[in-house]
Amino acid sequence: MDRAKTIHATQDGRLTNTQLQKLLASLFNEFAPTLPSFTLDMCRCLLASVDTAAVGSIDYEQFTELWKAISTGTRIFYNMPRQEDGKLGKDQIVPALQAAGLPQDNFLVQLSCVRYADQDNSFRYPNFICCLLKLKSVIGLFQAADRSGSGTVTLDYHQWLRLAMYS
């Protein structure tokens, strides 16, 4: 993996969304050739989930964190009962979120379906991974901002923009 990362990274060792897409395609081709690939937009989502500085690229440590999250999400996806077409049905989202250690409620499932599911409310593998990483990212950001554990946070304009636009 180090060699593949080096081939695809910029001179300063960082990965942009385009380079991330090429690296993931290379890794999946080598380790799991039957998995569907990630689109460039999905790679933007994945990159944003670990790009804490919001600079549009990630370093090796962030890539390692991302790869672990993708691997965990992949295990969850493939350990859940799936439909005949290989997609994860809406009824499996709550157990999948539980398996990922994330909170789950009807509103969260509804938002996840609206944003990441197909018209029949089922999740393809890449969409599920993007959904899972987005949820981990925004929930983590919320929990970090909610230091008192009150369930309420106060954000300034830039914090709100970062959360709304790039997480």
Describe this structure in words.
- The protein is about 60% helix and about 0% strand.
- The chain is mostly helical.
- The chain has a single domain, classed as EF-hand (Recoverin, domain 1, Orthogonal Bundle), CATH 1.10.238.
- Helix 1 runs antiparallel to helix 2 (about 15-30) and helix 4 crosses helix 7 (about 125-145).
- The longest helix is centred in the last third of the chain and has 21 residues, at about 125-145.
- The chain is globular.
- The model has no long low-confidence stretch (mean pLDDT about 90).
- Its main location: cytoplasm.
In DSSP terms, counting alpha (H) and pi (I) runs of 4 or more, how many helices?
8
Intertermini distance? 25 Å
> How would the global form be characterised?
globular
Provide the residue-averaged pLDDT.
90
Structural class: mainly alpha
Low-confidence stretches: none
Subcellular location: Cytoplasm; Endomembrane system
InterPro entries: EF-hand-dom_pair
Keywords: Calcium, Cytoplasm, Membrane, Metal-binding, Repeat
GO molecular function, one term: metal ion binding
Summary keywords:
8 helices, 60% helix, single chain, mainly alpha, 0% strand, Recoverin, domain 1, 167 residues
Question: Could you give a short description of this structure?
Answer:
The protein is mostly helical and 167 residues long. The longest helix has 21 residues, at 125-145. It has 8 helices and no strands.
